[in-house]
Amino acid sequence: MAQSFKFDLVSPERLLVSQDVESVVIPGTEGELTVMATHAPTMTSIKPGVVAVTAGGKTERYVVFGGFADILPDGCTVLAESAVHVDDINREDIARRIQEAREDLEDAGDHEARLRAEDFLHQLTTLEGAILPA
């Protein structure tokens, strides 16, 4: 059995998870990270995606919309801008976020802002395809 560590998933609205887990997969901005006990200290920003939390052989998935992850050898905390259990996400919320991202793209004032907006829109549409049935 894998060694466990303390994991917290926090959004501005509430604490979604606070428990000992075996592993957590985080959608980092530089790629996915799998966190396990005794992981090297790391801090990373996260992009819209799915956090997969495995505890007791069972995996729960949470949709996050950006934030930060603080990883230490004895624990991991994800501070999400917004987070919800994957079973609670709805098509209207994703569609609203995508529409807002499209508007931000249209309103982008310079090349750098446009690239950031395009990247965020791409992340949201990829997330939509990954978690919502057709």
Automatic annotation (TrEMBL):
Write out the coiled-coil annotation as residue ranges: 91-118
Spell out the subcellular localization from the entry. Answer: Cell membrane; Endomembrane system
Q: What does this protein do?
A: Produces ATP from ADP in the presence of a proton gradient across the membrane.
Designated gene of the protein:
atpC
Name this protein carries in UniProt: ATP synthase epsilon chain
How does this chain assemble?
F-type ATPases have 2 components, CF(1) - the catalytic core - and CF(0) - the membrane proton channel. CF(1) has five subunits: alpha(3), beta(3), gamma(1), delta(1), epsilon(1). CF(0) has three main subunits: a, b and c.
The topology of this chain with respect to the membrane is: Peripheral membrane protein
Origin superkingdom: Bacteria
Keyword Ribonucleoprotein appears in the UniProt entry: no
What region holds the ATP synthase F1 complex delta/epsilon subunit N-terminal domain?
5-83
Q: Report keywords, A-Z.
A: ATP synthesis, Cell membrane, CF(1), Coiled coil, Hydrogen ion transport, Ion transport, Membrane, Transport
UniProt lists the family membership as follows: Belongs to the ATPase epsilon chain family.
InterPro entries listed in its UniProt record: ATP_synth_F1_dsu/esu, ATP_synth_F1_dsu/esu_N, ATPsynth_dsu/esu_N
